[in-house]
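tool_call: predict_structure(chain=1)
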Amino acid sequence: MISGRSNRIVGASTKAQIVRTYLEKRVCAAESCCTVLSIYNQAQFCSVHESPMRRSDLLFRR
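tool_result:
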């Protein structure tokens, strides 16, 4: 299936980068939540139901 969205971004360096995408129409895994997740969000939960992260976790995540 071909969608109208590009999976490339062009930054200041004119070098195109592949942008990772995930399945469309995924729904938050929390019970009774019907939030549809972005195709760019790799998480299983929406931001309301996602576990909070410590700042140090974010620094080492990259």
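agent: The longest strand covers residues 8-10. Proceeding to next step.
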